[in-house]
Specification:
The protein is 69% helix and 10% strand. The chain has 24 helices and 24 strands. Strand 11, helix 13 and strand 12 form a beta-alpha-beta unit. The longest helix has 173 residues. About 2% of the residues have low confidence.
Length: 1204
């Protein structure tokens, strides 16, 4: 074990935290300038290890804290890290950290971060080898100097301290103190014995007169005793008579009181019943109000549904009538449409032929007019043009113009043809669209029908489930009410049980339950009272037998009970007695075989595993038929006996009995609690099942309602889509009409364009034909013939055109009338009538009517249910009122009877008070005579029967004469004989006590002799060890020299001793003992030749060598794991410093001992394994590892500086 490192913060000059590098396990040297903090470093180590810094005052603590610039240091700590690989410190770690923290108000120790006390620290260090009696493992500045100045006697005291003689001296002082106290007691005893001897001589003379007086006094006492005894017997007899009367009155009062208690209990039950009935009545009234409200709402709904059904039926009837009318009108309308269509079909061909004829005539006229114009133009060309080329040029220009117009007409023709084709395609598309929509409508109608059927089915299922839910709700309310009632009874019984249970036990049981729950403690079965069951007639016997054992808790093992008790102590949670099943055994009892005796254990019901616990509590108790049988069985069989009434006879002879109020039976309350809890558990399971069914039913109803909503939403959506499709069809038909008209117009335009194209082509052909011909100013004969025929033909064609156009206009007018009538009137009316028929044929209203009828049926059922429920509630209210009246009448009767009993009890109380008054007087009289008899004191055996046959008057006369005779001895010391005997006994007791004190004094003297002997042996043993090591160390330090220690005894104090002036023979100590040894003298020779020298004859350096030799010798006697030397070589000569350094090096290597030294000399530095330099800057010290060369340079510089 050695110091590994030191951590310092805030201690003296070490403000900031410094941690030294690991120390060498052998020799370490610390160097530094004066005032740098070397000594503070050593003080820091001593601060932790030594008891020098114990019991510090506030100013002492403040002095240990760093004082310097900057913020104030409020606390400091020093931590020493030990290498404990050899386990010298009894801690299972290879590295141990011991820290001491100090502040203005605190002083604490920590071992590996855990707080420990000062005493624990000192014990720990002593166990590691740091002896309090030998503090020389730390040698600070000044210690060497003090040893050099030490006297012989002081060196002896030092050896005594090292040898541990302090304990002998303390015990010797204690023994001497006891001897002094014993001597004082003996002196007092002797004085008291002398006084008693003198007093006994005086009393011996007064005994004769006292003897005569005692004879008369004996007669007086006998007479007084006989008189008092007769009066006492008379008072006892009267008391017995009063007791009999009082017992009768008390018995009758008890009977009446029990009746009163029974009536009160019954009255309480009736009050509770009245509260329950009132509560039920209030609940029923609320239910009635609720049911009446439900009935009103149901009837309101029923009426509204009736009106809705009536309206729907009227609508359906109106729709059916409208349907019939619409069918008839539709039939007539269809005939009219058919006639119009037939007529239109006839007109259309005629109209088309007329249009065609008109077009042909128009074309003929146009052609002829064109020919006529050409002929006229040809005829006038000769005058119009000057040459053939000019004409051809004009013709070509006309042809070009016509070609341009023709191109435009051809493009228009192509466009019209494309548009006609597109319109035909649109017509086909519209017709296909209408057909697809009609198919979708049929599909939607089928879906709507199925949705309606599904809706009706789900509604039926929902109604059935709602009826089931109503039934379950009723059952749930019924079970909840029963459970609440049972819980109220359990609470009442538990409160009664709590009142009957001692407070500490109740708190303890509650704490045990809480501990088992919080800490999950298993193996706790509960108190005895919760684990047993029996017939009600045995309740009293069981309770009286068990007493508070009813609340003893049965556990599986004593480990569990120990664990719970620890928690109870920490929580301060009451007291509990445990019965560990692993520690108790059921007693083996031989029960008497008799019909009058039954073992109590056989009447109890409990689990077989609890047999040891129940055997311990009830195994030695039997139930007896009556108190006489119980007395006999307890005496003959050695068993505890009890009757069913609770009268108890112990096997030890004690008897306990009297009235036991069975109404306060703890077992009855527990039975109520257990039975009701079982019932509650069953009801709660049933309620849980009902609620589970309710939840399932609610879930099913929710699912059905959700499905209904989905179906209804789908039906509405499908219906909406169907209507939309119908509207789409109507829109498509309108588009078809519009497209047909557009198609007809396009065809007309196409015909006009084609006519124009034909004419343009003809004109172009004529112009081409004319080109290249000769330019003449006259027509050919064929042209003139043609010109003459064209005008009449044109005139004739125009007349035909007028006639044809007139016919065509008439036909077109009729056709337009027919088409307009069909489109605007007949077909529209047909659609309206078909819609009426469709609506009438549609089952929407019928479905809605069916729904309303079903809802009306449900509403009617609700009204009937509400009426029945109202009737049940009203009947329940009437029944509760009747029961309430009966209960109140019964309570009034009980109250009347209770008042009668109260009056009777008051009368009996007065009788009892009168009897008690008489009894009190007689008891006072009895007590008075008993006291007088006791005051008579001890009597002779014949005093009880001598005057027994005489009357009280005769006895009083004899007493009077005896008292007159006693007056003659009034001067006699009445207590002379008693005093004589008393004083004699006191003297004997004191003499015995004196002998005991003499024996004790002798024992103490023997002990003191032994202690002195052991002290001298310890001093001699220590001296021999130190002296031997002193010789060895001195010869090592001083080559060729020798030295030794001399123990100076009392006979050694010769006058010619050199130290006689300082160390003369010692005086006797405070205990009167003259010390055997008076000092230790040092004899040394530094040359090895000549006489030895004493300390006074040595130089300062030589004295320092002797002092170091003594320290090393002491350390070798009681070695420590490490040593701290603070500048021990300051006063040594160079050769001795070298010797000291070599010795330290040798001890470190051979004994594995650690040395930490401070020095200003190079010798110790040279033998060191590790060197530390202490620097000081800004009033703050620091410690760092330095090289040996740096350390030697520093020492050399410091020595030269000091020399300058």
């Amino acid at each position: 074990m050695y110091i590994k490192k030191v951590v310092i913060e805030g201690f003296k000059s070490y403000k900031e935290q410094i941690t030294t590098d690991d120390f060498s396990p052998k020799v370490n040297c610390v160097v530094g300038a004066n005032g740098s903090g070397k000594s503070n470093f050593f003080h820091a180590i001593r601060f932790v290890l030594s008891d020098l810094f114990q019991n510090l005052r506030s100013e002492d603590r403040h002095a240990l804290l760093h004082e310097g610039a900057g913020h104030q240091v409020l606390s400091a700590f020093v931590e020493i890290v030990f290498d404990n690989s050899d386990n010298r410190i009894p801690v299972d770690k290879e590295e141990v950290r011991l820290r001491r923290t100090i502040g203005l108000k605190k002083d604490e120790y920590f071992l590996d971060g855990k707080h420990i006390t000062k005493t624990e620290v000192m014990n720990l260090l002593e166990s590691a080898g740091f002896s309090r009696s030998n503090p020389y493992y730390v040698v600070q500045q000044g210690k060497i100097a003090s040893l050099t100045l030490m006297k012989d006697s002081e060196r002896l005291d030092l050896l005594k301290e090292i040898g541990g003689t302090r304990v002998y001296e303390e015990r010797r002082r204690e023994s001497l103190k006891i001897m002094q106290e014993t001597a004082n007691k003996r002196k007092q005893i002797i004085q008291v014995v002398q006084y008693l001897d003198d007093r006994l001589k005086e009393l011996d003379e007064e005994k004769e007169e006292l003897r005569k007086y005692q004879q008369l006094d004996k007669q007086r006492k006998s007479l007084e005793y006989t008189i008092y005894d007769k009066e006492l017997q008379d008072a006892r007899q009267k008391l017995d008579e009063i007791e009999v009367t009082r017992a009768q009155v008390s018995e009758e009062s008890t009977r009446m009181y029990n009746h009163v208690l029974d009536d009160r209990e019954k009255s309480k039950d009736l009050d509770q019943k009245i509260k329950d009935l009132t509560k039920e009545l209030q609940s029923l009234n609320k239910d009635k109000e609720s049911v009446e409200k439900q009935l009103a709402e149901a009837m309101k709904k029923h009426t509204a549904l009736e009106l809705d059904v009536k309206d729907l039926q009227e609508k359906i009837s109106g729709n059916m009538q409208a349907k019939d009318d619409a069918v008839n009108q539709l039939h007539m309308l269809q005939q009219e449409i058919q006639n119009s269509m037939e007529e239109l079909d006839k007109i259309k061909p005629a109209y088309e032929s007329q249009v065609k004829k008109e077009e042909e005539i128009t074309r003929g006229i146009m052609e002829r007019e064109k020919q006529l114009s050409i002929l006229y133009q040809k005829q006038g060309r000769a005058t119009q043009f000057s040459s053939k080329a000019a004409r051809d040029e004009w013709l070509q220009k006309e042809i070009d113009d016509l070609q341009q117009v023709l191109s435009s007409n051809l493009a228009q023709e192509k466009k019209l043809l494309d548009e006609i084709n597109q319109l035909n395609a649109d017509l086909e598309e519209r017709n296909s669209y209408i057909e697809s929509r009609r198919t979708e409508i049929e599909t939607l109608e089928s879906l709507i029908s199925r949705s309606r059927e599904g809706f009706n089915y789900h509604r039926t299922q929902r109604d059935r489930l709602q009826d089931e839910r109503k039934s379950l709700w009723g059952k749930e309310n019924e079970l909840s009410a029963e459970i609440d009632k049972l819980k109220a009874e359990v609470d009442k019984a538990e409160k009664s049980l709590d009142h009957a249970t001692p407070g500490d036990v109740r708190r303890g049981l509650n704490s045990v339950r809480r501990i088992c729950k919080e800490y999950e403690v298993n193996g706790v079965f509960g108190p005895i009272i919760e684990l047993l069951d029996c017939d009600e007639k045995f309740f009293t016997a069981v309770e009286v037998t068990a007493g508070n054992s009813l609340f003893h808790v049965v556990v599986e093992s004593d480990e569990i009970s120990t664990q719970i008790i620890k928690h109870l102590n920490s929580l301060k949670g009451g007291r509990v007695t445990f019965i560990p099943l692993n520690r108790v055994k059921a007693p083996h009892v031989n029960y008497p075989q008799s019909s009058d005796v039954i073992p109590l254990l056989k009447k109890l019901k409990f689990s077989q595993e609890f047999t040891p616990a129940f055997g311990q509590v009830f195994g030695r108790t039997v139930i007896c038929r009556d108190i006489d049988v119980a007395t006999r069985v307890a005496r003959t069989d050695g068993l505890d006996c009890i009757t069913l009434e609770g009268d108890q006879v112990s096997k030890k002879g004690g008897m306990t009995g009297g009235f036991y109020d069975y109404r306060r039976s703890k077992l009855k309350f527990m039975n109520i609690v257990m039975q009701n809890k079982k019932a509650i558990n069953l009801k709660e399971k049933e309620l849980e099942l009902v609620r589970s069914k309710l939840q399932e039913t609610d879930q099913k109803i929710t699912e059905l309602v959700s499905e209904q909503q989905k179906l209804d939403a789908k039906r509405v959506h499908d219906k909406s889509e169907s209507e939309q499709l119908k509207q789409d069809i109507a829109n498509a038909k309108k588009q078809i009409q519009f497209i047909s008209k557009a198609l007809e117009n396009k065809k007309k335009s196409l015909a006009d364009v084609q006519t124009q194209i034909h004419q343009l082509k003809a004109s172009i052909n004529v112009k081409h034909a004319e080109m290249g011909t000769e330019l003449v100013d006259h027509l050919t004969p064929q042209e003139r013939d043609r010109l003459s025929r064209l005008n009449p033909e044109i005139k004739n064609l125009k007349e035909q055109l007028i006639n044809c156009r007139t016919d065509r206009i008439e036909t077109e007018t009729r056709k337009a009338e027919l088409e307009t009538n069909l489109t605007a009137n007949l077909k529209r009316r047909k659609q309206e009538l078909e819609a009426i028929v469709y609506v009438a044929e549609s089952d929407t209203l019928l479905g809605e009517s069916e729904l309303k009828k079903q809802e009306l049926k449900d509403a009617k059922s609700l009204v009937e249910d509400a009426k029945q429920q109202l009737k049940r509630v009203s009947d329940g209210i009437d029944e509760r009122k009747r029961q309430l009246k009966e209960v109140k009448d019964e309570k009034n009767n009980i109250k009347t009877a209770e008042d009668d009993y109260e009056r009777s009890l008051q009368d009996r109380a007065k009788d009892l008070e009168r009897l008690l008054s008489s009894r009190s007087n007689l008891l006072a009289k009895q007590e008075e005579y008993s006291k007088k008899i006791r005051e008579l004191g001890p009597l002779s055996s014949d005093a009880f029967d001598t005057y027994k046959r005489k009357s009280i008057k005769e006895l009083q006369k004899m007493l009077h004469r005896c008292n007159e005779q006693l007056q003659q001895f009034s001067h006699v010391n009445k207590k002379a004989l008693d005093q004589y005997v008393n004083f004699t006994e006191q003297r004997e007791e004191l003499q015995k006590r004196q002998a005991e004190l003499d024996a004790g004094d002798e024992k103490i003297r023997e002990l003191i002799t032994v202690l002195d002997q052991r002290k001298d042996e310890s001093i001699e043993r220590t001296f021999k060890g130190v002296a031997r090591h002193f010789r060895e160390v001195f010869s090592e330090l001083v080559q060729g020299g020798h030295g030794h220690l001399v123990m100076m005894k009392k006979k050694d104090g010769e006058p010619d001793d050199d130290d006689q002036d300082d160390d003369g023979p010692r005086e006797a100590d405070a205990e009167g003992r003259v010390e055997k040894y008076i000092g230790v003298k040092v004899k040394v020779s530094f040359t090895g030749q000549g006489e030895t020298q004493s300390m006074k004859q040595l130089s300062g350096g030589q004295k320092t060598v002797v002092a170091l030799t003594l320290i090393f010798a002491i350390q070798r006697c009681d070695p420590a794991p490490f040593y701290l030397f603070d500048e021990i070589d300051a006063a040594l000569d160079p050769q001795y410093r070298t010797a000291v350094g070599n010795m330290i090096r040798r001890l470190a290597d051979m004994a594995n001992t650690q040395f930490i030294t401070t020095t200003f000399r190079p010798e110790l530095v040279k033998v060191a394994d590790k060197i530390y330099g202490v620097t000081h800057k800004n009033r703050v010290s620091r410690v760092n590892v330095v090289r040996m060369e740096d350390a030697l340079n520093f020492i050399e510089h410091d020595q030269s500086h000091n020399a300058d």
